[in-house]
Amino acid sequence: MTSSLKERLNYDKTFDCVQCGYCLPACPTYETMEKETHSPRGRINLVKMVAEGKASVEDLKEPIEKCLGCMACTTVCPTNVQYGEIFEGAKRVIDEERPRRLVEDFLFQSFFPSSKWMNTLGNATWLYQKSGLQKVSQRFGLTRRAPLQIHEFETALPAMPGPKARRNRADRYVRKRPASAKVGFFKGCVMDSVFFETNQNTVELLLRSGAEVVFPEAQTCCGALHAHTGKVDHSVELAKQNIEAFEEEGFDYIVNNAGGCGARLVEYAHLFDEGTEWHERAVRFVSRVKDISEVLAELDGLVFEKELLKTVTYQPSCHLRNVQKVTSEPLDLIRMIPGVELRELERPEFCCGSAGVYNIVNYEDAMDILDVKMQDVCGTGAGGVVTSNPGCQLQMKLGVAREGLEMEAVHLVDLLMEADPRPKW
Amino acid sequence: MEKWLEELQSLLPEGHVLTSLADRHSYSFDASFGEHLPDAVVQVKEKQEVADVLKLANRYKVPVHPRGSGTCLSGGPLPVHGGIVLDMSQFPAIIDLSPRDLTVKVTPSVLTGNINKAAEKHGLMYAPDPSSAHVATIGGNLAENSGGPRGLKYGVTKDHVLGLEVVTPEGEVIKTGGQTIKNVTGIDLTKLIVGSEGTLGVIVGATLKLMPKPPAVQTIMVAFDEVRKAGEAISQTLTSGILPAKMEFMDQACIIAVENFQPVGLPVDAAAVIIIELDGHPETLRVERGLIEGIMEEMGAKEVIIPKSDEEAAKLWHARKQVSPAIAKIKPTKVSEDATVPRSKIPDFMDRLELIKEKYGLEVVAFGHAGDGNLHPNILCDKRNVEEMKLVEKAVEDMFQAALDLGGTLSGEHGIGTMKAPFMELELGEVGLDMMKRIKDSWDPNGILNPGKVFPEKGQKLVLHHD
Q1: Residue where a domain stops, chosen among A96, A123, A149
Q2: Which residues are in the 4Fe-4S ferredoxin-type domain (chain A) (predicted)?
Q3: How many contacts (CB atoms, under 8 Å) link A and B?
Q4: Side-chain half-sphere of A10: how many Cα atoms within 13 Å?
Q5: Is the ipTM of this complex over 0.85?
């Protein structure tokens, strides 16, 4: 069954926008690209124009592809416009008109959703770093010739654990004493390959908080990257697989540590029609999805023993802040660490420009946004940036390098582990 | 490509003349009604560029429509005659404060709210506070002569402008007024330009007046079981030697809409509420608060609510701000008017609105700045319903007539733009409107600046529907 262009573009939803313009000051791309065409109001209007046949899908392409999807606009919209749905509808229509590319099909259908591929990616990165190949290629500028500015990101990657550490991870961490909560851990794809250590630290924090942790085997990619690139049908399939995987045991929480993945997980219910069985199952799933910072705050089971003499600032993941609406917990956790001085950003709500794969496909635009962010970061005088999403962490590392600064960029859970957390009771 | 467009592109830095369909659509609307596709969008960043564009437009007789953030509620920046949208929002934003003079110099792209923020650092304030101040540019506010809740005590934008720098339609740069509080040198061109809705010149700089920031504020909410009583209580307060900064009115439909949207505990059984803000020295506020409590009791108020904390007060003002989005949930299209009447006539105006509502069977709600007679009657409808929109056109016409019958005006703070132009003669008379038009014609002999605004075209009628 094919639905009309108007339906696929969520035409009816565009009428919720009263074009007041309150979203303009919140939109990073409006600020850096200096055009209404790259503002939420402009994009919604263009979607409407395309639906009415006054402009073509081709006209819509650039404005939609240059949207970060940070959803900052939705936090200031007085009429609660469902920008996310309008944005995804537009992405889908654009994707349908695009000729298929084999590499892309492989990446989205086989690569990200597969644990095997993700482990291979992690191990390959480890080999690259350990074998000296990284040094060699950096010295001779080999990666500079790679497409998509890969060399910029490559230097920002964390050190990889070896294949052995990967193999040795258990699927289940149980406690002898009664657990304070049973946690199903959503490991993520890139998170679990490139940021394996951060995942391990997350498990450790949960265990020390008195919880037990399980990695359901059948879990797969959250589908965020698919949805953001218009592959909605595929993202629905992934959602079903995850919902099923986490139904196998009675979890109190379904925990993740990547703002972008979490934002996708909490929106699973919107993928299904209300009243259907899948919708009901999705609602149950979503009600248990929590970011690691929320769960650590709720369990309240840790004391931090080691004093860290650091001044840090916190760059929230947009998807954690604007979609999952988690704002205070990460800040509260940082403040619990003895010795750490937290200096907040002037505009924490402003995206860092990472935005999924945005910084890879729209490199120049992402760097313009990063420059605005780095001004704010530098203004705090902090010696480190704490983030809550792997993409943001890489982007902040890149920002630090571009500014020629000596500053660390760490994931919140890695910072917490550094402070020697002990069980409170 | 047309010759003027080619020449325009050679005149400005690359990328500052936008002609793609996506870009043109993105500047075809504002926060009011209608969509009009311009031929080009020109982003200017220097006053010389503005002058160059106007000179060229004047030579080729191409219409130029200045635009700030596009938050206008009356169609000011709409390119109804095609041609050029002159995007002023990307001009460098500069706020140059002189605290000892209590003045500030600004460029047109500065967001109005930022002027007040800068002033507050020096214990000063910029008084006009339109609800879109955090988005709207001062250039747009000056062109439209915007108001806001504080207008009751402090007046509207025109009451805070000392001088302007303006590019004339013929591309010359002039200065009007100055930077002193008193200045009676010649005819007051500053006041002529402010509120001329971009029809006489393009504002490229302004010197504004600042005031000492009142040290404290006090919020009071009063509920009434009759709308008429609320209107009378407002008049009684203002004739008792008290001048609040704000006196905001919400009718029952608005109260219910807000409570359905984001509940804050407003009295849903009240026929109307007034939210008052007093400002001044804390000692004075204490006395005035007592006086108002007495007046309200005497006037038969249902309830007087004094917020216990700053947070509670902020909640009430937030509720007032939520009226606009909340009523948009009743029906998708909101036709918002700002007809204004002498304050003593508010109860009569409310009665007339009730009659209009019954006559056409439409959803009409009212809220707004009741203390200065500037109510915002809103008709809630669906612009996809042609028949309903035709009724709305008639109802709007009746509203304007009602306001004028009561000695009021078409617009208190939103401006005339496209929608109210057909009614200008009703208020000004034939000769009055003609004198206004003569001023326009002598400033802009080729009629290139913002044509289609303020002045009605022959036989022009209010049209809100698309057949």
Answers
A1: A96
A2: 7-38, 57-81
A3: 78
A4: 20
A5: yes
